Amino acid sequence: MRISLILVGTFIGCVSSVSLGQASRPADKPRLAIIDFCIKGDVGIKDAGEVVSERLLMQMGQDHYQLVERSQLAALLKEIDLTIALVRDNPEKVYGKLKGIRFIVLGSVNKLGSIAISARLVNVATGDIVQTAEVLARDAQGLEDALGELAKVLLMTEQEKKDYLGKRPIATLPSAKEKDLTLDLGGGVTMKLVRIPAGKFMMGSPDSEKDREKDEGPQREVTISKPFYMGVYEVTQEQYEQVIGKNPSSFKGAKNPVESVSWDDAVEFCKKLSAKTGKTVSLPTEAQWEYVCRAGTKTRFGFGDKDEDLCKYGNYCDKSNTNGFDWQDKAHNDGFDKTAPVGSLKPNDWGLYDMHGNVFEWCSDWYADSYANLPAGQAGAKNQDPAGPDSGTQRVHRGGSWIFGMPQNCRSADRGGFNPDLQFDFNGFRVVVASDNEALRLPPAAVSAADAGLAARLAKAREQLAKGKALLDDKKFNEAAAAFQAAKDLDPDLVEVDQLLANSSRMAVEKSASEAGILSRLERRNEIARQAALVDISKQVQQAREILNAATKDTDYNNAEQAARSALDILQANKSFFGAKEYSNEDARIRDLLAQINSRREAFNKFNKGRTRS
Questions:
Q1: Looking at the predicted structure, is the pLDDT value of residue 298 above 60?
Q2: Under the phi-then-psi rule, with left for phi > 0, alpha for psi from -120 to 50, and beta for the rest, what region is 464?
Q3: pTM, two decimal places
Q4: Span of 6-15, 172-181, 258-267, 460-469 with lowest mean pLDDT
Q5: Mean pLDDT computed over every residue of the chain
Q6: Which of 610, 567, 612 is nearest to 592 (CA)?
């Protein structure tokens, strides 16, 4: 899909002798406003005239003009009994009358096969046209790039425009669809991301919205100043396993969203994927997430206001859920009991799936119970690229889920927070990738030393893992154990290593004892007892983790605790077979698991009480 760019070469000299060079670069930065564009034909964008003018205003920048916001323009026009709509249709009514604004941009958007956008820069005092330009976009998704070119030409001097046309009389740019991003995760696994344009939206919910919560306000206009890429789907189990090396999910399925992941786990995934691809991968900010969820809408959901339509777009706790929760919506059916394979239901208007329901999605922000008094954003204003509080105890989650997913919890503005170390089978995430114009891949100098080191360690770990397997096949058990230990030291998340290390160590002991006679019968018996204890401990720990990850009621947490305490009992009963350091490490590992169980039980009960509104 391509966008053809045509720059109209007409430069009209004005009676007042105002040239673009004079108009665009005075020391006092003249004020400029953009009138809503006229729309002819269906261009596939709601409120297209206002949207195009707002996005063009953002593209113009502040270097040459002092830009006038739409609300300010409306107030100034009101003083002379005019409106934006009236000026759009009859621009001559404003000439010579509008005080305090020297230039306006007028334009139109025409749907004639492709989409044509034409604009003219006008001297308000005289009505003289200072500059003109026109761009053609194949579809609505190509408008962002087209408007960038439109702004570029409107800001040029006469000579700059002539030089530009001489070098590039007809240019082609890839459409936004063509610039959607696909990451190669290795092993035949990929990740698709869609390009999200910069823009503005109303974040939070109005006081009048049905099911509104206090933490959704005060509602305010937020600016996303730069385009970025967001995952079309929630991160899947096969994607997570390919990057991290394990799959913690309770509801297995390669295309199902990964769940039972903490915020810390999600951030670690982003770090490793950044190192793997050379791109800046992260969790979305809360503002980015809601901006994409809304996809230009102002309704309760990205598809409208009706609860009954949710089952077409989101997997939530409805008739298909078999858990029998009190809050279950028994009137509608999305067709899925637990998590659904990503993309099973309808996407939003920007082509992203499961923004409502399936799993709660982690965001990068610390959670605050109000948007009031937040710190400044990345651009120095709390309403531009906001990144949330500077500190906190919980991280934001968004979107609702298959279990705690009543319609009100799946609204675009609904929000909540969890401790960043908690892992629930209704928590997952999707990622964003920073967009730096067309140069998405970071140059080597831009990759941090830490990320470069991480990439090298991960590669080395897998080399050691492969080496250990080959040595194990050759019955070189001591060498294999050394390789597996090296792999574990380099990447503790390699899921295969623990069992392989235990097997190779045991085989090495048995071989040494039987062939070389190094170990006495007692030593051999003690070592076999230690190995057996380790296997039993691992089984109990694994059982505890599986119960914990699938827990939906308080008794599940009791059962998980019982399994973990059984592991501790086995360790203590076999203490004499362990060295001091090994015993201490195992004891710490089990007690850490017990602490996680208690913490998650408390959080689960708190969440269950606080979020199950009737």
A1: yes
A2: alpha
A3: 0.51
A4: 6-15
A5: 79
A6: 567
The pLDDT tens digits for 329-360 are 777 888 888 899 999 999 988 889 999 999 99
Would you say the CATH fold of 181-436 matches that of 2-174? no
Closest-CA residue to 60 (of 35, 87, 33, 39): 33
Burial class (CB in 10 A: 0-12, 13-18, 19+), 33: buried
Q: What share of the chain is helix, strand, coil (3-state, %, to 5)?
A: 40, 15, 40
Calpha distance 507→437 (Å, rounded): 56
What are the structure tokens assigned to 567, written together?
A: 């592991």
Count of beta carbons in the 10 Å neighbourhood of residue 278: 17
Please give the span between the terminal C-alpha atoms of the chain, in angstroms, as a whole number. 48
What is residue 212's predicted lDDT score, i.e. its pLDDT? 92
d(CA 597, CA 565) in angstroms, rounded, equals 11
What DSSP letter does each residue of 349-384 carry, written as one string? TTS---SSBSSEEEEEEEP-S-STTPPP-TTSSTTB
Is residue 66 within 8 Å of residue 29, measured between CB atoms? yes
Structure tokens at 608: 């269950």
Distance (Å, whole) CA 407 – CA 308:
9
Looking at the domain that runs over 181-436, which CATH code has it been given? Answer: 3.90.1580.10
Domain parsing of the chain, residue ranges: 2-174, 181-436, 445-504, 520-614
pLDDT digits (tens, 9 = 90+) for 554-574: 788 899 999 999 999 998 988
Dihedral sign from CA coordinates of 311, 46, 70, 28: positive
Task: Please state which of the four CATH numbers 3.30.70.3040, 3.40.50.10070, 2.60.40.10, 3.30.160.670 is assigned to the domain occupying 2-174.
Answer: 3.40.50.10070
